[in-house]
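[09:14] KT: can someone run the structure on this one? pasting the chain below
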Amino acid sequence: MAEIEEVSSEAFKWLQQYPPSSWALVYFEGKRFGQMYSNIEEFNKWILKARELPIIQVIEQIHHKLMEEFQDRRLKSNSWFSILAPSAEKRMLEAIAHASTYQVLRSDEVEFEVLSHERSNIVNIDSRSCSCRDWQLFGIPCSHAVAAITSCGKDVYAFTEKCFTAASYREAYAEEIHPISGRIQSGKPRDGPVDDENILVRPPKSRRPPGRPEKKRLCVEDLNREKHTVHCSRCNQTGHYKTTCKAEIINADIEQFQGLT
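[09:31] RB: done, structure tokens below
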């Protein structure tokens, strides 16, 4: 912030209008539900014990993990008595507590001006929008929207996105993941007799070099990195080094060799 203030005092003052947690959301036009992400590292931690197994056992471990997670989340959600899921319900209760300190001025059936000690905000309950943009970003009415909705005698929970309700959470995990009879066996019929030779996964017969094998992981930086071009100092061509140069020996090379000897 000190460096930004040295470059532009106006930019420094403008940034101070918003909390640091909202700097990346000021001009975000979509909805930010808070729990949607695609982080492969989280999935790797989830199947940490199964990562080094063969692929068939990895699939079995993921299948068992999903069965446990679905059952745990079904049991957990059955103990909820709130309309929204706990995290969304907590956010809603905080908004209701702050809304009691605001003054609401009604313009028409859907538009309101909500006055607080710091500023005033325009709320439109028809488009489900507030000038603070929290309602649009998170899908849950902000404190200004709650003040406007309650002033006209309407239910604030009716203006919350359906995905935050406890009923939607239960519906997401309502389907059961059924167990698979017998182990998954690649390339072998299940109807035949099952013995230790069919279940046990044998190692490959090829000889492995000594030492710990290196893990090859694809890195995003490696994809964007420019490839290094090798250059031959003997023939001035690219694609190989001097030691592997197959160009014909010319007089300059002979003279250079004679000079070295």
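[09:33] KT: thanks! The mean pLDDT is 80.
[09:34] RB: yep, looked fine to me
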